[in-house]
Amino acid sequence: MPVLSNISQLARCRLEGGQAQIDAIDSAALVWEDDIIVWTGGARDIPHRYQSLEQLDCSGRLVIPGLVDCHTHLAFGGWRGDEFEMRLQGKSYLEIAEAGGGIASTVVATRAASKEELIEKALVALAEMAHLGVTTVECKSGYGLDEANEIKLLEVYAELAVRQPLRIVPTFLGAHIVPAEFKDDREGYIRLLTDTLIPRVSREGLATFCDVFVEDGAFTIDEARRILATAAGHGLGLKVHADQLSDMGAGALAGEMKAVSAEHLEFANADSIKAMAELGTVAVSLPIANLYLGQQAFPARAFIDAGVPVAVATDFNPGSSPSYHLPFAMTLACVMQKMTPAEALKGATVIAARAVGMEDSVGSLEPGMKADFAVIDAPDVNHWLYHLRADACVLTVVDGNYVADSLAKSAGGE
């Protein structure tokens, strides 16, 4: 039962309170036993029974809950660096897709990749994410788009969950786009999703959520409603890729369907914001994608002012967001979306945990929660996100175990 001591600022990030309320304690300590937090508070108030325990000295650093990246497309074949140049030359997302690039090109590469190749590639990303303070990762399929390859991707996530320490939350995104072989038979592909894939994914326990991309070139509101209703009927939680490139009213659909989250939302209208506020749907902001696509930023203040909880995630994928650096996404949320550092931190911890249905166990530092946390080489949250560094995280703990541990090793830990 170790004691994390000499903490300059401990951000507990309890779910209660507004977006900016991170429940910070200065000069703090944290105690955990096995995989559970048992006490947090001011160092002067630590109970006598803990005072003689092993001490891990934070040397006046910041301690935060383990970061939760609640929107990634972790497993995919190939990369799309050529599209980066095309966008810089003025080509739009839809123009690149119509020319055979975009999601369709990654589908080709992913179908050609073996399961082990996909696992090995994802393991590299997850190890680096751990060194950034990330402890939980939502992972979408959606680059297979046929039965064999969508199942392959979800089986990759199942394997990753047991081959490395970070928590994996799998999401079925078979409704990413209509694949080329169904170009003239949209109804046939939707039936594949509703009659075959969703029942199988549910029956085999391969995903926690089902997601749908609602956009021109992807799926309509009516098609998405049908797919989501089928998923709900099979016990899957619901998510929606909503209003990323145009106002489709998909945020309102997410509220209507009681989805746990709607994601992107750069072009969401007032009705969508209102529907999400009324139904408690989390808005997931993806500022790295905004940066790479050169599009308008997610209107964070409109959502926060309306009472919608806002999560911050990376959208890690090979095309529009080829980075899994969640602290970078948080800094961008501050600069591009005018969120405060406290709002961004809460958005990448307990609100992100809510976006994957795990807010009762991860995302905050309270007694009874999982011992998932990170030590950051900064005195407080403001300084951390202002002074962006590649190696600011010096310790990451998942389930009470050190998974990225330069601080622990320097203190004699194992």
Lateral strand order in the biggest sheet: 5-6-7-8-9-10-11-12
Number of helices: 16
Shape verdict: globular
Alpha-carbon Rg, integer = 21 Å
What would you give as the CATH superfamily of the largest domain? Metal-dependent hydrolases
* Structural class by SSE content: alpha/beta
Distance between the termini: 14 Å
Number of strands: 15
User: What proportion of the residues is helical, as a percent range?
Assistant: 25-40%
The assigned CATH architecture of the largest domain is Alpha-Beta Barrel
List the helices and strands and how they pair.
Elements: E1 3-11, E2 24-33, E3 36-42, E4 55-65, E5 67-69, H1 81-88, H2 93-98, H3 103-112, H4 115-130, E6 134-140, H5 147-163, E7 167-175, H6 186-203, E8 209-213, H7 221-233, E9 237-242, H8 250-256, E10 261-264, H9 270-279, E11 282-285, H10 287-293, H11 300-305, E12 310-312, H12 326-337, H13 341-347, H14 350-355, E13 373-376, H15 381-386, E14 393-398, E15 401-404, H16 406-410
